[in-house]
Amino acid sequence: MTPSRVGTPAPARLPAPRLDALPEVTSALATTAADYDRSGDFPAEGIAAVHRAGLLTASVATEFGGPGIGVADQSRLLAALGEGDPSVALIAAMTLLSHAKQARGRYWPPELYAAVVDESARRPTLLNAVRVEPDLGSPARGGLPSTVARRTATGWSISGHKRFATGVEGLSYLLVWARTDEPVPRVGTFAVPGGTPGIEIHRNWQQLGLRASGSHDVVFTDVEIPHGHLVEATEAGPSAEQDNLAVGATALPLASLYLGVGRAAQKYFHRFAWERVPANLGRPVATTERFQQAAGEIEVLLSGAEELLLGLAGRIDRGEQVPASRALGARTLADRQVVAAVQLALRLLGNPGLSQHNPLERHFRDVQSAGVHAPQEDVSLRTIGRAALTPTETSRESALTAH
User: Among 3.20.20.70, 1.20.140.10, 3.40.50.2300, 3.30.420.270, what is the CATH number of 244-392?
Assistant: First the structure.
């Protein structure tokens, strides 16, 4: 284990992640996914199963007592969780990606992060960056938050309204994006412990899919936190240069979550194809050319998405300089292919596929959320397009020669 930095508390002893137990965790999540989908309740049983397998802290850096798994293993982990219950997977992803960001940049005050890790060793400790606002929308599209952090004698007072706070009913820390009231305003992230007085959760998450993710609105009214809960802050102004590593390290695991949904849909499609024996056919529909061709297309779509995501994740882990545009492109293509695969499975099944008695209907609803995470496809394509249109020396010379 890497020695801790000067002034950093000794790391807690975190449970080793049981990546070999992922099939068991997937199965455990799948047994409760339908019930939580119907109720919309916080999926406490699923989160507990992920914690017991040591997976919630799998991305904590070795410096802080964790295993520090890379982007490829994070992607595999989230694909497995997404296959079992994507609502649980999304809640877990927010925590995994928060720890992974700390591993890359050391943003948190040392004492506060040490407390988070210590708590994580004892019980599920969920984190999520709460950024979207009703008026502003997604920060990926630009703008400053309306949520304000005002200095007090003992720390900060947070007031504002946030949307899509995934897992908010179970969060240990809400990482709130806010601007300060200082003479020269800063924009930063403030760690607000869940359950702090002044936090009001509006249970208004009534979406098509990921119903158990509990991505409700939350209102902060004069919520008091200590000085040391300011995680990071910069002067308000133009966006900093794109962090290519951060883009890839976030986009690829999130897309892999929905790859897991696609694999779950594929498994049900296969099961249906072998169990369905029409009287006029006298044999399983899996033996027909129509279903065999569809099964082949579904596999091509899903395996292609998997190769894209894990291949690029592996390059990041090996230290290659992967442009943000490449990672965003991989996510865009993977999302499209997974959605297409699930739609094809649904189309082949017809009415049975649309029945709530079958899991394929739920998988179809859940996979529709693949494209909603920031940056959304239109923003990603503009980023990719700008990179593609940036003149290189060769293209400049060619243009001069042509004229």
Answer: 1.20.140.10
Distance of CA 112 to the CA centre of its chain: 23
Answer for the pair 117, 66: CB distance below 8 angstroms, yes or no. yes
Looking at domain 19-124, does it have CATH number 3.40.640.10? Answer: no
Locus of tokens 């969060």: 171
E strands, 170-229, are 171-180, 186-193, 199-202, 216-226
Distance from C-alpha of 352 to C-alpha of 181, rounded to nearest angstrom: 56
Tell me how far the alpha carbon of residue 369 is from its chain's centroid.
11
Distance CA 234, CA 179 (A): 9
Residue 127 has pLDDT above 70, yes or no: yes
Do you know the residue count of the chain? 403
Q: Is the dihedral of CA 33, 34, 35, 41 positive or negative?
A: positive
3-class secondary structure, 173:
strand
DSSP letter at 136 equals: T
What pTM was computed for the model? Answer: 0.92
In percent, how much of the chain has pLDDT > 70? 91
Domain 139-235: give its CATH architecture: Beta Barrel (2.40)
